[in-house]
Design a protein that fits this description.
The protein has one domain: Tetracycline Repressor, domain 2 (Orthogonal Bundle), CATH 1.10.357. Helix 1 crosses helix 2, helix 4 packs parallel to helix 7 and helix 6 crosses helix 7. It is elongated. The chain is 77% helix and 0% strand. It has 9 helices and no strands. With 201 residues, it is an all-alpha fold.
């Protein structure tokens, strides 16, 4: 068994590699990420990186896992502390926008979806897993707003979740081309109008 200090150092090195890999993916996409690229970026040999990630795909999957974990910690966990119903749903949308802004350069999950949407394999499957989980959690928050009678009884949670997802993707698109300030203002207005169209009268 390895000493705890050695194990801890290895975990810290792995985390630092993943963090640097996330930064590369934000700017260059997943196709811009390779063992050689990350090795040079963190000052390690290729064999050193291979000791932590046996393949490029394993490194790419670790980046997806890290992005999903960060999203959960910064968006969903704070939002679920809000009052259940419309307050919580709007908190998810608002925090989602702020998270997109904090991901300077772009969201790794969106990048992966664009690059691998028609390429069967482990990366595409991992993206589908996380996106499906996100849609389910969003639909659950919407269903709660229906239960609290803040949204109409005929609201279809999966449909509204799809539409909210569309607003967030539009923000991601516009923020890259036209800047975050204008994109956030327009996205906040779009989200509010969308939710208002489903409000119980």
């Amino acid at each position: 068994m390895q000493p705890a200090a050695t194990t801890s150092k290895g975990a810290a090195t792995r985390d630092s590699i993943i963090e640097r890999a996330v930064q590369i993916v934000r700017k260059e996409g997943f196709e811009g990420l390779s063992i050689g690229t990350i090795a040079g970026s963190v000052g390690m040999s290729k064999s050193g990186v291979f000791a932590h990630f046996g393949s490029r795909e394993e490194l790419q999957l670790a980046v997806l896992d890290a992005a999903a974990q960060r999203f959960t910690e910064q968006v969903f966990l704070p939002a679920i502390r809000e009052k259940r119903g419309l307050t919580r749903l709007l908190a998810i949308g608002s925090r989602w926008m702020k998270w997109l802004r904090s991901e300077q350069g772009g969201c790794p999950m969106v990048s992966a979806a664009i690059e691998y949407d028609d390429r069967p394999g482990a990366i595409r499957e991992r993206v589908i897993f996380y996106q499906t989980r996100l849609r389910k959690e969003l639909s659950r928050a919407i269903a709660m707003a229906v239960e609290t009678k803040e949204l109409r009884a005929d609201t279809e949670p999966e449909q509204l979740a799809f539409e909210i997802f569309g607003v967030e993707l539009a923000m991601h698109h516009d923020s890259r081309l036209f800047g975050f300030d204008e994109a956030i203002v327009r996205s906040e207005r779009a989200l509010q109008r969308l939710v208002d169209s489903y409000r119980a009268r």
